[in-house]
Structure formats: structure tokens, C-alpha cells
Specification:
Number of helices: 19
Strand order of the largest sheet: 1-6-5-2-3-4
Radius of gyration: 24 Å
Oligomer: single chain
Strand content: 5-15%
Distance between the termini: 55 Å
Shape: globular
Number of strands: 15
Amino acid sequence: MQIYEELKARGLIAQVTDEEKIRELVNNGKATFYIGFDPTADSLHVGHFMALCLMKRLQMAGNRPIALLGGGTGMIGDPSGKNAMRRMMTKEEIQHNIDCFKVQMSRFIDFSDGKALMVNNADWLMNLNYIDFLREVGPHFTVNRMLTAEAYKARWENGLTVLEFNYMLMQAYDFYMLYTKYGCNMEFGGDDQWSNMLAGTELVRRKLGKDVYAMTQVLLLNSEGQKMGKTVGGAVWLDPKKTSPYEFYQYWRNVADADVLRCIRLLTFLPLEQVDEMDRWEGSQLNRAKEILAYELTKLVHGEEEAAKAEAAAKALFGGGPAAEIPQLVLHDGDFEDGAIGIIPLLTKAGFATSNGDARRSVTKDGSVRVNGTKITDPFVRFTKDELAKEEHILSKGKKSHKKIVVE
């Protein structure tokens, strides 16, 4: 099976501009394609993970990826899928985030010997003469057409700024510059970017008379239509300092039964024949499928050694064994009052609750809090510093969140 057919079989493709031409290019290793990453944080997250996997698949088939870092567009912010404008970041923040992205991307993509490129659109956007830019790009777009894009319609009622309205023009200009500089003939991205991507193909065609192509991948949604990779405390990050390998493993180990087989098909590099066989699994077999999913994705992001440690720690925890690899909740002298700490501050310090009230509800109403497997129902329970330091204590909320308490 060739790469385009595999992408379709895995359910990765949402929309394409010219299926016949795209199939020909990627199957013959002739696509120089780009995916954009706006540096809105100091780590990539699960939302980027699917794009990185797609880049890896296509590179393995002989195509050349361009990772476009949005040092320029990051100064504005894309309204896609949002009902509020992004916080404006400083140039220093953006550069720091870009530096972090570069390190993480190199775990997935081979940038040696020109096999892939990493490019920053600040190189051409930051020095633009605005009047020249409007004359060069503006005539190719109508406001009426831009307002038909879902990304802009969603923001219209809450107030779409002129700053954000320029994003489509700048993304289109990115494609134009990547074509002229590097021969980029294709853009890939999430399905929520379709309108912006079409703008790029149109600009290249109008200005240069050349055909370029766009393909979107399906969005990583769960069976309830929510974006995957979100947790109560925030996002599932690829940086082990923000989301530990164990936490990353546990996130995927605890996906819903209805989502696990689709995630295996979309995200892992397991052979399709094996995935097709797993599609018939049900009942208790789905727990094994979740373990496979969690291990394979943790191995991709953090390496085989960390994946094995996370798997062993998870099995040890639920089997009553040692918990050496479970994330730690480190307590210091200042965390104790009269030599003890209550269950409510423990939950908030662990990040298992957003407030004391939230923590109290988890204890008194949800019944989801346990220490060493014992359910805690009294919100006034306290633990002394001596007992926490002397013996191992595992704080748990529900089935997904666990931390080992360490006193320093």
C-alpha cells in the first residue's frame, strides 16, 4: 500500500484540493510540503502530535517536510476555533518558544542533509512594508469571501480585530514565499485551517500562475466531539517537564473505550494489518488495546526506555507494587502547618483541583479521592510531616491522576 492510500485507510485525510495530483506527488516522493506551528507556548502539545506524525509518515515515504515556525504570525494570533483574541506575546517569549519547538520537533523529523527544513516566517513577515504588502497581496482577496470562513464567522459576534483579520493574508503569503524560496508545492494542516490554506493556493496561482495543493487532516476529537489532549489542569504537553512520561502514558491508557481503536489507527505506526485485526477487539481486550496505544505513543514522544518505565509504573501502581516512576508531589517545610497538612491543600498542590472548593467537592461529593487506595471522605483529614516522610503515600483522584508524596 502506498502512502496516500495508507493515510486514507487510517482515516487521516479530511479534505484535499486535487486528490489525483496529491496522490501522484506524495506516492512518488515529490511533495515538498509545509505545516505551520505558531509558538503560543514553550512546548508542543497533543494537538501538534498528530501533525508531527503525519510529517514523519510522509518523510518516510520520500517527501520533504518544511516545519514553518510562526515567529511572525505568532505576533498576531490565529482566530481559528477561538472565541477570544490571543494574549499578545513579546518577541522574546516567541523566540523562547520557537527554540523549545525546535528541540522537540527533532525527535520526530530528520532534518539532516536537507531531508527536511525548519523555517521561521518572521524572516519575511517582520520586515514587510505594510503598504507594499497590501498592494501585493490585498487585491487577491475580498472581505466578503474572507467572512465566509468559519474561523472568522465564529469570532464575528465577539469582535474580530483588524489585527486578526490579517492572519489569512499572512498565511497565504507564507505559502507564496515558501514556494518561491524552497519550491514548496503543498500545505498540510488541521481541518479548521482549510480556509486559510485555500487562500495560500489561490495567491500562488494568481501571482505566479502555478498550481500548488492543500490537504487537511482530521481533527483529533474524542467520541464526544471534544478535542483530545485536554485535561482538567490544562493540556497534555510533549515536554516531559510539563507532562511527565508517566502522565503522558496514563492519559492514553485512560482514553474511552469508544476512542482507543481509532486513536491506534490515527496515531501509531503499527502495521495496518495489525490494526485491522484489533478493530475486532471488544470487552476486556480493549484494556490491552489501551496499553498498546499508551506504550506506542509514549515511545514515539519520550523514547522506548521511558515508555517501558511508564508502563511498569502503571502496572505496579494498580497491582499494589512500588511506584518509583509515578510523578511526585514534593512538599517542603512551608507546606505544613503545625507539622501537618490537610487533604484539601494536598489536592490543590498536586494540581488535582483548581481551588479549595473544587477539592472539597472531590472529597465530599465525588468520592474520587484516595490515599494509598483508601477512599477519603472527610475534608478535614490531615497527614503529619513525619508519617508522610516515613512511608510511601500515593495521592489519587479518580482512575487517571496519581502522585507520590515526597517530603524534602
